[in-house]
Design goal:
By secondary structure, the chain is mainly beta. It has one helix and three strands. The protein has a domain of 36 residues. It is 7% helix and 26% strand. The longest helix has 6 residues. It is globular and about 35 Å long.
């Protein structure tokens, strides 16, 4: 379990999210987008202060599955609650 560095409360797992570097142009995106760097990150959010932490999704995967504090349901979008 990972605690917030600001609040010291357990962070809530919000899933594995995909990211890419670069920008999108027009309707179909940048033609060079296929060569852009792409990566995934495990995203955790503090339920108290809203800070977000990113971690390597491969490290600690087994710990997330066994963690009773992990929320594997659909994560709400911040600011829409």
């Amino acid at each position: 379990m990972v605690n917030c560095v600001r609040c010291s409360v357990p962070l809530v797992f919000h899933g594995i999210k995909g990211f890419h570097e670069g920008r999108r142009w027009g309707l179909v995106g940048d033609p060079g987008e296929g060569f852009a760097e792409k990566f995934e990150s495990a995203v955790y959010v503090c339920p108290t202060c809203g800070s977000i932490e990113f971690f390597d999704p491969e490290e600690g995967r087994d710990l997330r599955a066994d963690n009773p504090m992990v929320n594997f349901g659909a994560a709400p979008v911040l600011g829409t609650e």
